[in-house]
User: Which sequence fits this backbone?
């Protein structure tokens, strides 16, 4: 019979837990990694961008004994398997996997016009690249890292979904309306589709691996404010019950909850943190 930790503080404690974060050099990846470190865990950042990875590792850990990194293209299963082997060999276990990597305009070969094209003009290469990185690579990471967790009889996998993996994006927030000039971006169709897939992959794996004490949950955030166009922020905020976008660092607590024993009786759940947007 499972015995829960009585102390709430100890439930959230990640001391000596080996935590792998894909897309670790990115905007949210850095926030998740610093949260893991703050709670005593050992963040291991995985990213394809070597320079950004070095910068993020230095920023988060101050020295390599507190934060590690490995350059990995997660669309290449051989590279993933190699990283798994290195981590397992050096640290003996893999306790947490945060599948955070996703295709953005910053990591896409196509220009903004192709990335943010209207659906009728969808660029097939952008679509395929988005599905490959957001969904297929998440599956490959679950497969390889999760297999280790199954063998060791414990682990927590957190797949990053999105509010638009649950509801359709409101296309009107991007389009001109009266004094509002609109913005030169949108939510591409591949993003919504791939994030919906991530959420359902989470549920599939949760039932498959529950008997091995491997929990699989997803976390679906809404947009984080990053100096967006004020009129766009106003437009988007009007669709959110709390009347604002998320702030930087506002998702750290949710990640620690899912990674730690604080959520020891939770699996297959999609934790949505969106200011109430998906309830309207």
Assistant:
């Amino acid at each position: 019979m499972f015995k829960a930790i009585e102390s709430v503080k100890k439930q959230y404690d990640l001391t000596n837990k080996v935590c792998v974060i894909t897309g670790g050099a990115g905007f949210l990846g850095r926030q998740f990694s610093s949260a893991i470190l703050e709670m005593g865990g050992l963040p291991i950042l995985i990213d394809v961008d070597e320079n950004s990875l070095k910068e993020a590792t230095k920023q988060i850990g101050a020295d390599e004994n507190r934060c590690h990194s490995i350059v990995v293209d997660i669309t290449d299963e051989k590279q993933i398997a190699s990283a798994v082997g290195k981590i397992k060999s050096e640290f003996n276990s893999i306790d947490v996997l945060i599948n955070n990597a996703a295709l953005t305009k910053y990591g896409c070969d196509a220009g903004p016009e192709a990335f943010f094209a209207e659906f009728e003009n969808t660029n097939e290469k952008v679509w395929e690249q988005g599905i490959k990185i957001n969904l297929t690579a998440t599956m490959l990471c679950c497969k390889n890292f999760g297999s280790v967790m199954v063998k060791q009889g414990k682990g927590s996998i957190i797949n990053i979904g999105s509010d638009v993996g649950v509801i359709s994006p409101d296309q009107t927030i991007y389009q001109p309306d009266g004094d509002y000039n609109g913005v030169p971006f949108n939510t591409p169709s591949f993003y919504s589709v791939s994030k919906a897939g991530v959420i359902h992959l989470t549920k599939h794996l949760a039932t498959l691996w529950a008997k091995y004490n491997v929990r699989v949950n997803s976390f679906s955030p809404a947009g984080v404010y990053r100096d967006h166009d004020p009129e766009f922020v106003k437009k988007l905020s009007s669709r959110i019950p709390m009347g604002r976008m998320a702030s930087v660092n506002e998702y750290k607590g949710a990640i620690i909850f899912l990674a730690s024993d604080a959520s020891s009786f939770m699996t297959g759940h999609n934790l949505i943190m969106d200011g109430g947007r998906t309830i309207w």
Observations:
- Strands lie at 18-22, 42-47, 68-71, 96-99, 155-160, 214-221, 270-273.
